[in-house]
Amino acid sequence: MPAFLDDFLFTYESLVHSLGVNGLLALSMYVVLAMGQLSLGQAAFMGIGAYTSALLTLNVGAPFPLVLVAVMITPALGALIIGAPTLRLSGVYLALATIGVGEMLRLLYINTPLFGGALGLSGIPRLAGIIWIYGCLAVGLIVFVFVARSRVGRAMEAMREDELAAGAIGVNLPRYKLGGLVVSAAIAGLAGALDAHVSSFISPAAYGFDAAVTILSFALLGGIGSPFGPVLGAIILTLLPEALRPLQDFRLVVNGLIIVLAVLFMPRGLLAWRMGRLAARPGGASR
Amino acid sequence: MSAPMLSIAALSVRFGGLVAVDDVTFDVAAGSTHGLIGPNGAGKTTMFNLISGLTPPTSGAIRLADREINDLPSWKRAALGLSRTFQNIRVFPEMTLAENVATGLHPSLVQGFPAILTRLGGFAASERRARDIAMEQLEFVGLAAKARQRAGDLPYGDQRRLEIARALANQPRLLMLDEPAAGMNPSEKLELLGLLERLKGRGLTMLVVEHDMKFVMRLCDRISVINFGRKIAEGAPAEVRANADVIEAYLGAKVARGLEKGA
Amino acid sequence: MLSQQLFNGLVVGATYAIFALGFTVMFGVLGVVNLTYGFYFSFGALIALWLTQALNLPVWASFLIAVLASGLVAALVDSLLLTRLRRARAPELASLMVTLGATLLLYSLSSSLIGVEIRRFPAAAINASAFDLLGLRVSMTQLLIVFAAFAMVGGLVYLIQYTRVGLAIRAMAERPDTIALMGVNAGALARLVSFVSGSLAGAAGVLIGLNYNAIQPFMGEQMMLKGFAVIILGGLGDARGALVAGLIVGMLETLTAGYVASSWKDAVGFALLVLTLWIRPAGLFGRATVKRA
Question: What is the pTM of this model?
Answer without folding.
Answer: 0.86
